[in-house]
Amino acid sequence: MSYAPVDLAAKFDLFSEQWRPKVVAEMNDYQFKLARLEGEFVWHSHPDTDETFLVIEGALRIEFRDGAVELGAGDMFVVPKGKEHRPVAAAEAKVLLIEPRGVVNTGDADPQAQTAPGDVWI
């Protein structure tokens, strides 16, 4: 077993793709994923699970059909399961996502629109 910490800054340096989460750790059935986000994502929901967003750097707005939440560096928000949402970042935001293994980033949205390959480790 390795007792080395996960260096988030070093992991972010390994990729530049937008909206393509990369797994950096697992705990039980949950994955910790890093993502670079910029622009508007597709409207979607995750019918079977909550989704946690923790902003590491930058700012992120999570829009809902009935409002929105603004997140800055160090802010975290849990989107309840089944709640339709759309992440939006005016400039690049570096985000840690926490969700169960196997969750598709576009949830129940059209799979042709911004769906990323799953379970990609860095």
TrEMBL record:
Q: Which Gene3D superfamilies match?
A: Jelly Rolls (2.60.120.10)
Q: Which Pfam families match?
A: Cupin_2
Show where the Cyclic nucleotide-binding domain sits: 11-77
InterPro entries, sorted: cNMP-bd_dom, Cupin_2, PKS_Associated_Protein, RmlC-like_jellyroll, RmlC_Cupin_sf
Identify this protein by name: Cupin domain-containing protein
Q: Which species does the entry assign this protein to?
A: Mesobaculum littorinae
